[in-house]
Amino acid sequence: MESQFGLMNLWSQGDLVTKAVALLLIGMSLASWIVIIIKALDVIRYKRMANASSDFWHSEDFATALNKLGRSDSNPFRVLALEGREATAHHRNTKAHLHDTLDVSDWVTRCLRNGIDEFTARLQTGLAVLASVGSTAPFIGLFGTVWGIYHALMSISSAGQATIDKVAGPIGEALIMTALGLAVAIPAVLGYNALVRGNKFVLTKLNSFAHDLHAYFVTGARVQSSEPATIVPLKKG
Known about the structure:
Strand order of the largest sheet: 1-2
Structural class: mainly alpha
Number of helices: 7
Strand content: under 5%
Helix content: over 70%
Number of strands: 2
């Protein structure tokens, strides 16, 4: 109750700068939590898609395998499979373009890499917000504290009363801004680290899937990681 009273008292007695800092920190907190929730839901959804992508290779033909990935255009594994198929067909059916100087392996690799890069950019959207909030919120809160202490000391000086009970209250209320800055920054930093780990897992799975797709479209079979190297055929469809 005392901290709540102190914060309300600081708000009522604060000037325009103090209120602006408090509103800025609250806005940064809301923005970071919105990003954390939205991106966390995306990572959970993509992890499910990544775990389900192993069923793609347990199919008799490509059309059946593609159906196992679902019909959602937001599934990066399905999008990558379609891009690989289109790249292979385009290379085989087109004769009068500059890319004909590339062999099918290089052409498929380039198309799959472009697809992965586009998804990576989409996956990392919003992380800059968390990084910015985590790195700047403590300093913004500290600025609010310094500004509040300065005005508190000026008020005490003008009143001519410098007793401990008169000093401790205003300065303690000003220190709330530092605590607020830390309360905004800590969830942003933790959320950023968790999302980076989740994104890394999804991208690792996607790169592995792209490697198998490349082998399939170039050689007609998926390369296995077991020793000695083996391939698993999958009928074109």
